[in-house]
Specification:
By secondary structure, the chain is of the alpha+beta class. The protein folds into 2 domains: 100 residues, Sandwich (Immunoglobulin-like); 89 residues, Ferric Hydroxamate Uptake Protein, Chain A, domain 1, CATH 2.170.130. Strands 1, 2, 5 and 8 form a 4-stranded mixed β-sheet that branches.
Amino acid sequence: MRSLYMFIFLLFAGTVFGQNTVSGVVMDGDLNEPLIGATVMERGTTNGTITGADGTFSLNVSTDAGTLVISYVGFESMNAAFGGERGYSLGDMVMATDASSLSEVVITGVMDIVQDRRTPVAVSTISSKEIQAAAGNVEFPEVMKNTPSIYVANQAGGYGDSEVFTRGFDQTNTAFLLNGQPINGMEDGKMYWSNWSGMTDVASAVQVQRGLGSSKLAISSV
């Protein structure tokens, strides 16, 4: 019985002394901030952990000396050797951004432009040449004042106070699109022309659609 107790004690002691703890902090080299959720693995094993909210980690390893592999999405993996003492600290480990892993993102937009004689919608198109000729020193809405069913009211206030009425409806009932994207005010639906003062210099065309029609790109409007 005494031999059995001695054997169990020695086995337990061997297990305890066979473990070693390695700790450290994983940092973002660009922002100089801790990396949360970085993967820390003991090379050649399935033993690993992840960094906490402050970028720190503590891993029980099976050997007194070895290598940790640290990885994180968008960063170059790095190797960190440990050994020499128990409770080994690797200190701050700075990871560099892996530019090769960042793929190009292409965003494609489609403008819902009516084609003359091909779409049953009342439409008027103002070319860039006509825009430049009509612009002068007036605000951009003045370019559309000669368009059928369009009335432009220029208030006596400051720049950008013009209003565009389409068939009698004010701007809150009209959808204004820039390259297919709505630009009406998000809260009240109004159009603030002072935000688009340089439109006359860059617009290649202005298209006014009136009456019954449909658009894939904006909410319903009169």
